[in-house]
Design a protein that fits this description.
heterodimer; A: 2 domains; two-stranded antiparallel ribbon; 8 helices; B: alpha+beta; OB fold (Dihydrolipoamide Acetyltransferase, E2P); five-stranded mixed barrel; about 30% helix
């Protein structure tokens, strides 16, 4: 044992995802070797995130204020609403630079086998938002998995009576790949989701 | 290194890219393993490890208590319930029953085939049989293959032949089967089973062919209720997905 403080730091690092005991020790020694200002900047950054970041009251994205920067942006198209599972999915879509509408983050997916039902997600807020807002199209961008599809289907059923167009992200073969190496499922998706050309 | 054909029953995210998966394999029964990199689209798993998918897997067996290590998975068929939530929840329920009623490294190839056939039917949008019928028939097969099927032919207590009286029979949930009028008194958790429901259960328990019987809405609802109670007693608790099973 070197010191109680170092042990505590190792313990805390070891709780992070993908960090084992050895990696935690390496990180702790890095912090010990680093300049005091650098180490305290890390501590401040963690404190700031925990104290200032919360969920946007409208879309449930991560935000430092009542509304996130996307919901506040008046240049975005409020008639388009993209539904994603997690904030990191939203970030991935934002990085494409090809979407100019708003988002709704579910904060998970319906997974009854894990005890996660619709009431544990932000689905009720989504339905209210579509009902009360100016949304014309809801894009279901939940993951293309059985649980992601099930979540999208559940929401689609809830929105069925509302005058909105509901779409699902396309799926199939990857751009730049060759058909020969695409698997059966990819080709099935691509065929059933074909579009006028 | 082991190879098996597997149905994916559960996938739990583990770290950024890995997952802990529970598989029901034809060759080894229940297998639980860590799939490193399973959540990456490229790599040895190629998105094959999705709930209820059928795939070929390669894994390393670990010592008792530890998770096995999955090294490869090739997708054979993805579960596609279409736009019918009852089919999806039927599939989830089958997965839950398999997790709760089978054991690690206890193979049941016939049960695997029945589960695979039922999931295939649930995933076929053109299949006319209601999903609830597929699920109920699977439950009867599951109970039969695991040795839990209630006694339907003779009184479970004394072994005498039983026949419906006024169109009904006593079915003991705790006793584990039908009861004759002499053995019925004093038994707890006994329900009255209608003759058509009893007949349907008997036919479904036959090894071949008779499983094609499709009950009407009333009998189907009764069978669902009896099966729910029977399975709850067997498991000691209610399966999570049971409340989603109706469909008649």
């Amino acid at each position: 044992m070197i010191s109680e403080s170092v042990n505590q730091l190792v313990e805390q690092f070891a709780k992070l995802p993908g960090i084992g005991k050895k990696s935690a020790e390496r990180l702790a020694y890095h912090v010990l070797r680093a300049h005091k200002s650098e180490a305290l900047a890390l501590a401040d950054a963690i404190r700031n995130v925990k104290e200032n970041v919360r969920h946007c009251s409208q879309c449930y994205n991560l935000s430092e204020g009542e509304l996130c920067s996307i919901c506040r942006d008046t240049r975005r198209d409020p008639t388009l609403l993209c539904v994603v599972e997690q904030p990191r999915d939203l970030m991935a879509l934002e990085q494409t630079g090809h979407y100019n509408g708003l988002y709704h983050v579910l904060l998970g997916r319906i997974a009854p086998l894990d005890g996660i039902g619709p009431e544990q997600l932000t689905i009720e807020a989504l339905v209210r938002r579509v009902r009360e807002g100016q949304v014309r199209e809801v894009i279901m961008a939940t993951n293309p998995t059985v649980e992601g599809d099930g979540t999208a289907l559940h929401i689609t059923n809830l929105l069925a009576d509302l005058p909105v167009k509901i779409t699902r992200l396309a799926r199939g073969i990857t751009t730049g790949s060759v058909l020969e190496f695409a698997n059966k499922e990819m080709l099935t998706d691509a065929l059933s989701g074909r579009q006028p050309f | 290194m082991e190879k098996a054909t597997a149905i994916v029953l559960r996938v739990v995210d583990w770290s950024e890219t890995s997952a802990v998966v529970t598989l029901f394999t034809r060759e080894f029964g229940l297998v639980r393993g860590l799939a490193k990199g399973a959540r990456r689209p490229k790599g040895p798993f190629e998105s094959a490890l999705d709930v209820l998918s059928l795939c070929r897997v390669v894994f390393l067996r670990k010592s008792s208590g530890a998770l096995d290590l999955l090294t490869e998975a090739k997708l054979l068929r993805r579960f596609r319930p279409g736009r019918d939530l009852s089919r999806l929840y039927g599939g989830y329920y089958i997965a839950e029953l398999l997790v709760r009623l089978t054991h690690d490294y206890d193979p049941h190839p016939e049960l695997f085939d029945a589960a695979e056939a039922t999931l295939s039917a649930l995933g076929d949008a053109s299949e006319p049989t209601p999903s609830a019928v597929h699920v109920l028939r699977f439950e009867v097969t599951l109970l039969q293959l695991l040795g839990y099927l209630p006694q339907l032919e003779v009184c479970v207590e004394c072994g005498t032949a039983v026949a419906p009286r006024d169109g009904r029979l006593a079915f003991g949930l705790l006793a584990g089967g039908v009861l004759c009028p002499r053995c019925r008194p004093g038994k707890r958790q006994v329900v009255a089973l209608s003759a058509p429901a009893w007949q349907t259960l008997r036919e479904w328990a036959q090894p071949d062919g008779a499983a094609r019987t499709i009950p009407d809405r009333k009998v189907g609802g009764e069978l669902r209720s009896v099966m729910n109670h029977y399975i709850n007693n067997l498991l000691g608790s209610r399966p999570r997905l049971q409340e989603y099973q109706s469909g008649f």
